[in-house]
Amino acid sequence: LTDIKVNLFLAMNYDKKELYITKRKSGVDLGPNISELWNAVRSDTDPTNYLLLKYMSGNDIIPCGCGEGGLDEMVSQLEDDDVYFGGIRCEVKGMMKFFSFSFVGKNVGGMKRGKSSLHKTAILNVLEGCSGEISCMNGKEDTERDMIVSQIVKLTAVDTINEIKL
Q1: How do residues 66-94 score in pLDDT, each as one tens digit?
Q2: How far apart are alpha carbons 62 and 137 in whole angstroms?
Q3: Beta bridge pairs of residue 60
Q4: In angstroms, rounded to a whole number, what is the distance separating the alpha carbons of residues 101 and 36?
Q5: In angstroms, what CA-CA distances link 3 with 10, 12, 88?
């Protein structure tokens, strides 16, 4: 009986070790061009300053916006019936900073809300080099410019909102 307990203990520890060593798939299907689009946002020579990704039914993530219009253009594309992720480039104290972005519309059902929160880390990990995350979990009312700028102020510890250019 003691040998069985020891073998069971060793088998359990080995499985736990595998869990920490082996990288698991998130189950999210990210299109191959998402990394390329994010690289355009991060490029010093490209005027593109935001990327918006839409969380579709199932586990698909599709690009639905990418452009030069900054925060205002990006926010204008959001709808309260969907979940979005993305990233934006802005200038803070004369330096370029990048922030990831998550948005959950107020009309999104509980199942989609929960599923998207499980996949959020995997999706935002594609957006490398971000200084922090702008989170809008209550729909369009969270996307007012002042609310987003106040989140950036907290993330960057700048003194005033005048030091941020979006």
Answers
A1: 999 999 999 999 999 999 999 999 988 88
A2: 20
A3: 29
A4: 18
A5: 11, 14, 58
Which residue do the tokens 């969907």 mark?
82
CA Rg, the chain, in Å?
A: 20
**For residues 126 and 44, what is the distance between their CA atoms, to the nearest angstrom?**
19
Mean predicted lDDT score pLDDT of the chain? 82
Q: 3-class SS at 48?
A: coil
- The total of other beta-carbon atoms located within 10 Å of residue 107's CB is 10
- Residue 73 Ramachandran class (φ > 0 left, ψ -120 to 50 alpha, else beta): alpha
Sign of the alpha-carbon dihedral angle for 44, 148, 36, 124: positive
Q: Among candidates 65, 94, 93, 84, which has minimal Cα distance to 134?
A: 84
